[in-house]
Amino acid sequence: MGKYIEHNHNHDGIDRRGFLKCMAWAGTGVIWFMHSGVLKSAGLSQIIDKTTGKIRSNINIAKGDFTFVQISDSHIGFNKDANPDVVGTLQAAISKINALPYSPSFVIHTGDLSHLSKPSEFDTLDQVLKSVKTDKIFFVPGEHDFLSDNGEQYLKRYGKGTKGSGWYSFDNKGTHFVGLVNVVNLKAGGLGILGAEQLEWLEDDLKGQSSSTPIVVFAHIPLWSVYPQWGWGTDDSAQALSYLKRFGSVTVLNGHIHQNIQKIEGNITFHTVMSTAFPQPIPGTAPAPGPMKVPAERLRTLLGLSSINYMEHMHTLAIIDTPLISSSMDSMNEEKSEKADTKPSGKNTVVIENFSFNPKELVVSAGSVVTWINNDDSPHFVLSTDKFFSSTAMDTNDKFTFKFSTPGNYKYFCKIHPMMTGTIIVK
């Protein structure tokens, strides 16, 4: 790996330019092949040679009825150590798409297009995506796309013709696609949520489909409980999935968790993909989720080939996941796990770190001003459960202050990561 280290400014074995070269290997997209109702997939990094930029000579890709590519979690605007050039790594993923022997029918982006939902971030994304060789790009929002304006910018740009907060469906050559939104109106301590209106629409949308129709559902937050402790799941997904039980083949595509995890439950195959921006820890192997800085030589242990094969008589999809390098994943989380909790730096201060409020319960006197400081590499958004007080999106090192004049118990949570909760007790 030494030839990639050109300016070792941080003495960590890799510089910005070298990191980008290594990240260009990342399997930050999945190409899906539909043939006679059978859905198969392959990771882009496994079929594109990193040296030549062409399809590997030992890979045989038969063109199906149509193909599409899934990418996710671009986080345009992020610039921390985990990846100082998210635009560059998104462009690397696009280069892999454009290197395919035939252009995909369309691309699906499963959310967190932006990092702070700023107009400039969406502008940058739009410019980069213009280079994708495809006829159409479909989107669903992530929670980061609804931060500053409750999704107004997102819906204006990407939500034309959709319902509610951006859900919709479409058909392509006999396959029915459904884009769902589960990042709006998140509740304290809860998971993603679809909501009654969207669920009613989904039930009605599926009624007209034959049980033999292949169904592909895509949303940002997983529709199964990957790791509820980190908010990786959807509260009311069981109802949505109940509408899909009568179909012979159902595939659910998600992002949000920045890694490949697959599950088969009855007739439904669940599949999450890696981010084009940065990895996150494996569930439970670190104090909290969030951007994870990975040395270049370990990046390849994050990559893998996911092959999906239709089992005709079982009406399910069988998945095999093969990592490029077999190694212990614990070492990949060392840096994040060693990060100690920061004690409050002053009176009436709440420090946000490792996706938690410290202290979780703060007692102050009436008339006091409380300050929240974000020490995470991920943005947070303080909101009281009764909407009595609210911050804006707080990026790293940002602060939010609020004066509490009236005695009482004020419960609050992070609007972006609702598993984060806290209480201010005013005496």
Number of helices: 8
Strand order of the largest sheet: 6-7-8-9-11-10
Q: Which CATH class of the largest domain is shown? A: Alpha Beta
E-strand count: 21
Beta content comes to: 25-35%
What distance separates the N and C termini? 58 Å
If you compute it from the alpha carbons, what radius of gyration comes out, rounded to the nearest whole angstrom?
22 Å
CATH superfamily of the largest domain: Metallo-dependent phosphatases
Please, what is the average pLDDT? 80
Structural class: alpha/beta
Order of helix and strand elements from N to C terminus = HEEHEHEHEHEEHEHEEEEEHEEEEEEEE
Describe the structure.
- With about 425 residues, the protein is α/β, with parallel strands linked by helices.
- It folds into 2 domains: about 1-335, Purple Acid Phosphatase, chain A, domain 2 (4-Layer Sandwich), CATH 3.60.21; about 340-425, Cupredoxins -  blue copper proteins (Immunoglobulin-like).
- Helix content is about 15%, strand content about 25%.
- The protein is built from 8 helices and 21 strands.
- The chain has helices spanning about 15-25, 45, 85-100, 120-130, 150-160, 195-205, 235-240, 335, and strands at about 30-35, 40-45, 65-70, 105-110, 135-140, 170, 175-180, 215-220, 250-255, 260-265, 270, 305-310, 315-325, 350-355, 355-360, 360-365, 370-375, 380-385, 400-405, 410-415, 420-425.
- The protein has a 6-stranded mixed β-sheet with strand order 6-7-8-9-11-10, with no helix packed on it. A 5-stranded mixed β-sheet has the order 2-1-3-4-5.
- Strand 10 and strand 11 form a beta hairpin.
- Helix 3 packs parallel to helix 4 (about 120-130).
- It is globular.
- Residues about 1-25 and about 300-340 have low confidence and may be disordered.
